[in-house]
Every structure is written in structure tokens, then in C-alpha cells.
From TrEMBL:
SUPFAM superfamilies listed in its UniProt record: Heme iron utilization protein-like
Taxonomic lineage of the native organism: Bacteria, Pseudomonadati, Pseudomonadota, Alphaproteobacteria, Hyphomicrobiales
Pfam families cross-referenced by the UniProt entry: ChuX_HutX
CDD domains: ChuX_HutX-like
This protein's name: Heme utilization cystosolic carrier protein HutX
Name of the gene encoding the protein in the UniProt record: hutX
Protein species of origin: Bradyrhizobium septentrionale
Superkingdom of source: Bacteria
InterPro entries, per database record: Heme_Transport_Util_sf, HutX-like
Gene3D superfamilies: HemS/ChuS/ChuX like domains (3.40.1570.10)
Length: 169
């Protein structure tokens, strides 16, 4: 990406931090990772792709929302993320019903921890970023009855970010 393009993207994201990451990426012909990196530094931390460690931690959070956003659909699952284990080349989500499946964990190059405004509320999510700069899926911190971020999960989110994407300085 050219310096002018990067500066333009950073300016756009500073003015529109709640923009849909995938839409901005498509419109500007960049990767979703580039859009995440263009967010103000106070809103995003990106660390190594320690997929299994992140997923095992998230499995202890309780009810969250997992979103898979493709060009053709946005799938949302709200519930507890099951524990998983690595086997036969996949990270296997270990439950027979609800959310289950086989994830190509080795394609996860990095993990982004994002806190930003979205639709008039503060949101916090973890984006699992693949080798191509795309977002494999996002896991959002849950909300309580008053639609505020759950404090216990936000604390876990920050602790995981500190472990996997420590702040410079």
C-alpha cells in the first residue's frame, strides 16, 4: 500500500472507527488486516496467532457472539464457545451440538484485540486473522441485560490481550 493510500485509510478509520471492517476492505481494495491496522492505536492491538491458547481461554468466558463475515453472508452464533483440541491438522471444537466444527488453526497468522465504538455503543472483539490478511472470524465480548459489555469478559479480554499482544513500551 502506498504511503498516501495508508494515510488516507488511517484518516478514514480515525473519522469512522465503527465502520464495518470487511466493507472498508472491499471498498478500498485492501485486506481486513490493513483496515484493523489503520484503526487508531488506542483501539487495536495485534499479536501472534496463538490460536489454540486464545480459543481455550475464550471457551471459559461463557456466552459470547462469534461472527463469520463473508462476501455472501454474515453468520452469528451466540453462546458458549466449546473447548477444542488440535488433531489431524485442525483445531476441533469438541461438542456434538451447537457450535462445533474443524478450524484450520495453522492459517491463523495473528490475533487482533479491538475496542471501538460501533452503532453507538462500545464494542470489544477478537479477530482471528489468516495468512492472507482476511478475518477468519471474530469473537465479541458479551453484553449484560442493560446491553453493556460484561465486565468479567472484558477483564478476560484485556488479560488475553496483555498475554498475546502486549503493548509496546
Amino acid at each position: 500500500m502506498q504511503n498516501a493510500e495508508l494515510a488516507g485509510l488511517k484518516a478514514y478509520m480515525a473519522d469512522n472507527p465503527g465502520a464495518v471492517i470487511e466493507d472498508v476492505a472491499r471498498e478500498r481494495k485492501v485486506t481486513p488486516r490493513a483496515v484493523l491496522e489503520a484503526l487508531p492505536e488506542s483501539m487495536v492491538r495485534i499479536g501472534a496467532g496463538e490460536f489454540a491458547a486464545a480459543m481455550q481461554d475464550i471457551a471459559e468466558w461463557g456466552e459470547v457472539t462469534l461472527i463469520v463475515h463473508t462476501d455472501d453472508a454474515i453468520f452469528e452464533f451466540t453462546g458458549a464457545i466449546p473447548k477444542g483440541e488440535v488433531g489431524r491438522g485442525y483445531f476441533n471444537l469438541m461438542q456434538p451440538k451447537g457450535l462445533h466444527g474443524h478450524l484450520r488453526h495453522e492459517r491463523c497468522s495473528s490475533i487482533a484485540f479491538v475496542e471501538r465504538p460501533f452503532m453507538g455503543k462500545v464494542s470489544a472483539f477478537i479477530a482471528f486473522i489468516n495468512l492472507d490478511g482476511g478475518i477468519m472470524f471474530k469473537v465479541f465480548v458479551g453484553r449484560d441485560e442493560a446491553r453493556a459489555l460484561r465486565g468479567d469478559q472484558l477483564a478476560r479480554f484485556h488479560a488475553l490481550a496483555d498475554r498475546l499482544a502486549p503493548q509496546a513500551g
